[in-house]
């Protein structure tokens, strides 16, 4: 089988698995929501509503029907791209909530991932090229500390220091309420302000985004640092690296042009899955910084016992993880041909 044919077969098999993975994730979410305590009718009408009115509402919503009928009805909704509506906010469609809050999560996630990748790859690469030195020891401590620090605690400490005490950054929110927020096709304030060449809005957006994205990026960078350091150190001991050294190639070129590429396979996987998980709602970061993203909205829905909203958002998050996982598999297959066979 040729390389092109094996790659096509590999990509096709991964794409065909996507509906199955989404279905499994959807089923698990449905079962967990049904098993959770609470009653959606109580959320809509209040616990003190007459029982007759509650029974009428259950019949209207189909909650009086057997579980398997409710399950197949929900699957039919999903096939028509209908995630349902909120049980708490007067029937607000969940797709509308996603369109309103998801851009903020994307903006925070992208900036956090850029910081995490730059810091993690840089620190890990330097440590791997200088084994058993103080730099290597410091890199290990950095990875352990950033991985172990609680997100909410670290975020509050940074807010107290840089926002409250020093006043360098704003405390919470995505944009000042007293100013007009950027508008545009993407919903990303930084990008939309640049598209309109409104540099005042751009710098204000970056100013509000800096502290939460720095918090998120630094804590995640420790994971990348450890993976890069371990895999790159193993790669630097391989035979082809020793052969490159014997030919007189500089250590910097060996590191950047030979070793780093082969050490990036597991790093790409972790980067992608972490990015997908963060798109699924960086809940702790968004809640800590009062960031109006989808993770914060999920937290509010859980607090309000809005089961329909929680279920719809979780299905959306699961779909994101599945899609990104497939893209990671395809990217890995391009980088390393051995994966296709």
UniProtKB/TrEMBL annotation:
<comment type="similarity">
    <text>Belongs to the binding-protein-dependent transport system permease family.</text>
</comment>
<feature type="transmembrane region" description="Helical">
    <location>
        <begin position="313"/>
        <end position="335"/>
    </location>
</feature>
<keyword id="KW-0813">Transport</keyword>
<dbReference type="GO" id="GO:0055085">
    <property type="term" value="P:transmembrane transport"/>
</dbReference>
<dbReference type="GO" id="GO:0005886">
    <property type="term" value="C:plasma membrane"/>
</dbReference>
<keyword id="KW-0472">Membrane</keyword>
<dbReference type="InterPro" id="IPR035906">
    <property type="entry name" value="MetI-like_sf"/>
</dbReference>
<dbReference type="Pfam" id="PF19300">
    <property type="entry name" value="BPD_transp_1_N"/>
</dbReference>
<feature type="domain" description="ABC transmembrane type-1">
    <location>
        <begin position="102"/>
        <end position="332"/>
    </location>
</feature>
<dbReference type="InterPro" id="IPR045621">
    <property type="entry name" value="BPD_transp_1_N"/>
</dbReference>
<feature type="transmembrane region" description="Helical">
    <location>
        <begin position="199"/>
        <end position="224"/>
    </location>
</feature>
<feature type="transmembrane region" description="Helical">
    <location>
        <begin position="263"/>
        <end position="284"/>
    </location>
</feature>
<dbReference type="InterPro" id="IPR000515">
    <property type="entry name" value="MetI-like"/>
</dbReference>
<keyword id="KW-1003">Cell membrane</keyword>
<protein>
    <submittedName>
        <fullName>ABC transporter permease</fullName>
    </submittedName>
</protein>
<keyword id="KW-0812">Transmembrane</keyword>
<feature type="transmembrane region" description="Helical">
    <location>
        <begin position="15"/>
        <end position="36"/>
    </location>
</feature>
<keyword id="KW-1133">Transmembrane helix</keyword>
<feature type="transmembrane region" description="Helical">
    <location>
        <begin position="141"/>
        <end position="164"/>
    </location>
</feature>
<feature type="transmembrane region" description="Helical">
    <location>
        <begin position="106"/>
        <end position="129"/>
    </location>
</feature>
<dbReference type="Pfam" id="PF00528">
    <property type="entry name" value="BPD_transp_1"/>
</dbReference>
């Amino acid at each position: 089988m040729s390389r092109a044919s094996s790659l096509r077969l590999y990509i096709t098999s991964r794409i065909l698995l996507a509906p199955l993975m989404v279905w499994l994730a959807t089923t698990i979410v449905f079962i967990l929501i049904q098993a959770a305590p609470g009653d959606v009718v109580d959320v809509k009408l209040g616990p003190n509503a007459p029982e007759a009115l509650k029974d009428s509402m259950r019949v209207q919503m189909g909650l009086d029907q057997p579980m398997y009928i409710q399950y197949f009805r929900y699957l039919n909704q999903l096939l028509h791209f209908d995630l349902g509506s909120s049980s708490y906010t007067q029937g607000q469609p969940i797709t509308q909530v996603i369109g309103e809050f998801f851009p903020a999560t994307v903006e925070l996630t992208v900036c956090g991932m850029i910081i995490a990748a730059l810091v993690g790859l840089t620190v890990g690469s330097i440590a791997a090229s200088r084994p058993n030195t103080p730099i290597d020891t410091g890199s290990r401590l950095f990875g352990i500390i950033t991985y172990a620090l609680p997100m909410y605690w670290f975020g509050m400490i940074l807010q107290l220091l840089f926002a409250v005490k020093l006043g360098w950054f704003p405390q919470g929110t995505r944009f000042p309420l007293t100013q007009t927020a950027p508008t545009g096709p993407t919903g990303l304030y930084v990008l939309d302000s640049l598209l309109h060449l409104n540099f005042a809005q751009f710098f204000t957006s970056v100013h509000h985004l800096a502290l939460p994205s720095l918090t998120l990026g630094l804590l995640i960078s420790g994971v990348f640092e450890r993976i890069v350091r371990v895999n790159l150190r193993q790669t630097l001991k391989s035979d082809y690296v020793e052969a490159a050294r014997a030919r007189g190639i500089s250590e910097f070129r060996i590191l950047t042009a030979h070793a780093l590429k082969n050490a990036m396979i597991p790093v790409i996987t972790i980067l992608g899955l972490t990015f997908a998980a963060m798109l699924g709602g960086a809940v702790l970061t968004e809640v800590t910084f009062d960031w109006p993203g989808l993770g914060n909205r999920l937290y509010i829905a859980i607090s309000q016992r809005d089961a329909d909203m929680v279920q719809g958002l979780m299905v959306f998050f699961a779909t994101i993880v599945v899609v990104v996982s497939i893209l990671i598999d395809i990217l890995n297959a391009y980088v390393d041909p051995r994966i296709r066979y």
